[in-house]
Amino acid sequence: MYASLHTHSRWSDGKCSIQGMVAAAEAAGAAEYGVSDHFVLRPDGVEVDWSMPLASVSEYLDDVCEVREGARVPVRLGVEIDFFPETCGLLEKRLGSHIGRLDYIVGSIHYVDDFPVDADASYWTPLTQDQIDGVHEAYWTRLRQLAEWGRVDFLGHIDLPKKFAYYPTIDLSGRITDALDAIAAADLAVEVNTAGWDKPCAEAYPSETILAQCIERNIPVLINDDAHQTSHIGRHYNLAAELLQRVGYSETVRFRGRERTSVPL
To answer: Domain 3-264 classified CATH 3.20.20.140?
Structure first.
């Protein structure tokens, strides 16, 4: 049954209110719905317009809790953080007491140094193939570092650099292996993010090949739609379920109070 813990509202880069998103999830027959708006601390201190400022985090949490009280579906409270090695400690400190209110934390990477991996294809167009290779290579190193830091519950769209179909030509198998080994060692879950089917890459994040490597390591998974508006609710859920069954998964996970539970696929 459809559930998604990676979604966004107007508190970050979503198009709808939390109330509107939850109502759409209820109408779609969701078993569970989680809100996970962005919280980003860049090393250069520049604020991004798709992230909540620190001053808004408490209000955001209150908003989710208020909507949850009247919802007909279990509503989980999360946040999606961006991992930068330089600011991860500060990020944890600034979230502070708010962390205790969360059901889960999504760990993602949208930047490789100053390069915005998924902002727009126009950032990739001027790159040489060597530079494209370098972004992909650095991304997987950064993902390993995120897993080793480990202060999250699951990882978002773990092969995101493929979004605009600018693919590497170098062998990244070693980097990918290292990242997946670190994820397994940290006992983190990986999402199957269905938004990828609507992007130029035209497949889920991560790919079937990577998911096959995940199940070899007993890495738990969950299906998320990364909804930014009500029309995204439940998108491609059945495709994702079929994909997971094809590689051998029979269950997914959910989170409540930072505790992970398994449910049949």
So the answer is: yes
